[in-house]
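One such shown below:

_____
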Amino acid sequence: MATCHVLSCHINPRDRSSCTRLLVPLLDGTECGPSQWCLKGRCVSPSTLGSSMMVHGSWSSWSEFSVCSRTCGGGITYRRRQCNHPRPAFGGTVCKEQDTEAELCNQESTQLEFMSQQCSATDQKLLSVSPDSSSVYTWIPAVGYSSGDAQCKLMCRSREQDFMVSRGSQFIDGTRCKAAHTAPRGSISACLGGKCQLFGCDGVTHSGKVEDVCGVCGGNGSTCQFISNTYLGGEAGEYVTFLSLPLNASQVHVINTKPVFTHLAVLLNDKYVVSGDGNPGLSITYPSPLEKSLIIYNLFLTPDHLPQNEELTISGPITDKIHIQVCSVRAWRVFGCVWTRGGSENSVVCLLPSWI
């Protein structure tokens, strides 16, 4: 019997041998073979149809935006459309572009904590380590160990034995993730449907919006200017502030190329987040790679494991009190910094300096 002449259906989905025939033909446009479609009960090819029968797909209207996936702490709202106005048929082209548009909502800087809550919620869920053995572990985020889509698969790390595994299907939509590749300035990466999606600086997927050097979303870099400065000073055994960052500062970049007898420290709201105990700090991203505004400190070593240089980057825009300090184990040394004060935006940018 011809494929398109009678609609056949399984009575029991679990029994592939159960089948019944309904005395109706398949709908026109149903695929019945490679590059073949049903038309009036017959399976026909493009040469039979002619170009006049081809139907190109077109998008439906957008749905309403969904409720935000989180009431606070950063979630996602999205809307969808379908390629059914009309559906592509008889070899017509499918709809181009995206079928989902998402926006960030209810944003707050508690991203690592939210991921931690989801991992710890699986602490009592047994993990089978072998066919005859199951164990309970304490689970923490696998930030720094996983990135991209894999991270959004509820990827967590065992605190006890330091291995990572997926603890479920996916993180809640809106959970921040670390992009697998370097993301444009000011963009945000968040989980959506188990995938790490890139949002523009305006919080909209696929918008392509990026921040300029002044920290302005979609700006052209005209609201700030570069200023070069050099610091001469320091006290042996004491932390001395040589740069206090104004509010709205962005793209701060400081390098210490003589870290054997000196080291940098960062004081955030009267709390040390880099060094502060008299010793050079360990490389750190504060508060976590999941946040938008980061303090990134790296200590680079020579092949002999001696300090070679320190590098400090603060993306901004700055919203807190931040003081950058230097501590010397001997008498004062020379430090330099390049920074900018903006115009109408009153932004400040610190760039790679010329050190003495």
